[in-house]
Specification:
Chains A, B, C, D: One of its GO terms (cellular component) is cytosol. Chains A, B, C, D: This is TIGR00725 family protein. 4 copies of one chain form a homotetramer. Chain A is α/β, with parallel strands linked by helices. Chain A has 6 helices and 7 strands. Chain A has helices spanning about 20-35, 45-55, 95-100, 110-120, 135-145, 160-170; strands at about 5-10, 35-40, 65-70, 85, 105, 125-130, 155. Chain A has a 7-stranded parallel sheet, sandwiched between helices. In chain A, strand 1 (about 5-10), helix 1 (about 20-35) and strand 2 form a beta-alpha-beta unit. The longest helix of chain A is centred in the first third of the chain and has 16 residues, at about 20-35. At the A-B interface, strand 4 and helix 3 of A face strand 4 and helix 3 of B.
């Protein structure tokens, strides 16, 4: 199967600093250059920046960013989302983001991101966390695993480029 | 906003007859020719045929078919789905199909389709039902409304082409 | 297993007429007299009256009414609900009401009730519809089945007492 | 409002050691002695032991244990659950457990428990974690907060009795 890979990018919504914006945008752009579709929560913060970055990629074409929303309203998606999936299920939508992923990439993150990393672990998804991005991505990256479940460890990377290298090989 | 329209196509899964297959395929092809993205339940029956039809369209490009699955597994999507969204939420995924739609089009259908039409009504979505396709689409088309809620009536069309005409004008 | 039966009562929310209120209250009272726990959507209309009726039963004790809410807030339950389960999942909570039931009883009803009857059918639940209550309960009762699925037909009863007789024998 | 408090007890499913079983049973028993209803995931491990403990309480009466299941089947609940709520929503049911709670108490725990603690934080729920129980309850208890959100800190207790003291005062 040569289907386009679906990469879930998870990270904090709301206000984020310039450093995080840069990481998210770089990730978005490079994922699309490497023929990956971006699945995210469709809101602001990391979710917005990763979609914004996607659109800078030379290989970008319409349909490469998917936003899975907690609300019932398509209008609540950020402007860089191509395909809008409102779930009306509040944070339970995090499960859907994770299940849609061939690989989950975490950037920084608070409680929402933590719940997504935990679910991704439960569902056996490949998880890559960008260490320098801080937040729960950094903390969990150091642990390498979440519980005693026998499965592939969490992959801890320093830079976006390193994450891309791994995704390319999947 | 000149975003691509998201059209949910709902109808029976499992075994369907040749007449229904033809309608679903025609709808899929014409939706894509008219620059609409297809949102469906991602399984077999109507869902498979509409995605199959989409791929025949001259204007078809990767990403035009989205399958929102009841299961937790991407592998359970039919082969014509480009973007696979497993929800792990059983039939509660029907809500997500309906909420993702700018317009919902019904073809034939049993209990699952009926629940989707009912939800689409509740969420105020524009609903088009193809009368000659039989099943609940035909029955509900004749009623024109589902309850006393003040909202646009259900649009009853005879042929696929008529549905496309209406969608073009949205 | 001599567990208390869980009976889902479904019907219109919002404003309802005196006749429907009476039916819902009678049903609530008689279900509890017959040692059945009531599962409902926890809001107003039929849901409120059935819980109100439950509290009139001589055999009533705390915990006999369960409200499964579409919202994230316990405070949105009606005052007669003992056990409040907010889902935060909008109308997708209808699936949970139906799955919790040993038997589903429908009174009148609009689009929401229709979606619940349809889901109850899909999940193979025993369905009893009170004909004289009108709405979708009456319409679907006349059909006796929703699609070609091989399963027990829908049970059409005239009065609450008749529904209780059937539930007693389960 | 003097409604019975709804306490969500979260912790690892599957095999658990004797020490954890003891804690869970003690918590179950004492919660019911203090007129609290237990909300849990309805499966085995901590969920089973807490329900088992509940039934030892002198003040126990039918209806004090509620199991919110990931599956579509009532039969998958453990035998100590009085009220069975199958969601058919896989781990997304964790949201419902948390939303149903007036207070969430964590015992030990792996990835599932971690996702529940994270969601409880997001939804502003009061969280009590039993430190000596290990797992994520211990780790998160030490952090006292999950992210920068302004809300009440996580309450870290050594023993079950301490948790009960706090719950009594709510």
């Amino acid at each position: 199967m040569n289907k386009i890979k679906q990469v879930a990018v998870i990270g904090k919504g709301g206000e984020i600093n310039e450093e995080l914006k840069k990481i998210a945008k770089e990730l978005g752009e490079k994922l699309v250059e490497n023929n990956c579709r971006i699945i995210c929560g469709g809101r602001d913060g990391i979710m917005k920046e990763v979609c914004k970055g996607a659109k800078k990629a030379k290989k970008y074409r319409e349909g490469m960013t998917v936003g899975i929303l907690p609300t019932t309203k398509k209008e609540t998606a950020n402007e860089y989302v191509d395909i809008v999936i409102p779930t009306g299920m509040s944070y339970a939508r995090n499960q859907i983001i994770v299940l849609s992923a061939d690989v989950v990439v975490g950037i920084g993150g608070g409680a929402g991101t933590l719940s997504e990393i935990a679910m991704a672990w439960q569902y056996g998804k490949k998880i890559i966390l960008i260490e320098k991005s801080g937040g729960w991505s950094e903390k969990i990256a150091k642990e390498e695993k979440i519980d005693e479940k026998e499965r592939e460890k969490i992959i801890r990377v320093k830079e976006v480029e390193e994450a891309i290298e791994i995704i390319r090989k999947i």
